[in-house]
Write a structure and sequence with these properties.
Radius of gyration: 13 Å
Number of helices: 5
Helix content: 25-40%
Distance between the termini: 28 Å
Number of strands: 6
Order of helices and strands: HEEHEHHEHEE
Length: 129
């Protein structure tokens, strides 16, 4: 058994399959999950695991070259907005409706147990070299 890193076998396997430019949607429990992308649902209870914990774990595992969030997050969920601004350089904003539409092109959806609005972000994978 793995000793460090992501232990969830479904998530670890999905991350290993990602390539340059692939999109990963990290979302709260209320975000509509699009048909098509692979989904790893980590939600256990409201707030468990938190959006912050899942995002931090993914950022430890992935090279990210860009990120996009809903512009509504700044007013509706300032805590999530602050977290995203702290963790992701050059964060782009689009409307929540546009984010939902764009999430259909994601290769992977990781659903957290977050129970606060707009705790969602699309990550664009980079390369380590």
């Amino acid at each position: 058994m793995k000793k460090t890193g992501i232990l969830n076998r479904h998530l670890a396997g999905a991350l290993a399959e990602l390539g340059h430019g692939d999109l990963v949607l990290v979302c709260d429990a209320g975000m509509p999950v699009p048909d098509g992308p692979r989904v790893v649902d980590l939600a256990f209870r409201a707030g468990i695991p938190s959006f912050a914990d899942v995002l931090d774990g993914l950022l430890d595992e992935l090279v990210i070259e860009g990120a996009t969030a809903a512009s509504e997050v700044t007013e509706a969920n300032p805590e999530a907005a602050h977290l995203l601004a702290q963790r992701l350089r050059g964060l782009d904003f689009i409307t929540h409706d546009e984010l939902k539409a764009r999430s259909a092109t994601a290769r992977l959806v990781v659903r957290t147990g977050e129970a606060r609005p707009y705790a969602n972000v699309l990550l664009r994978c980079g390369v380590f070299f």
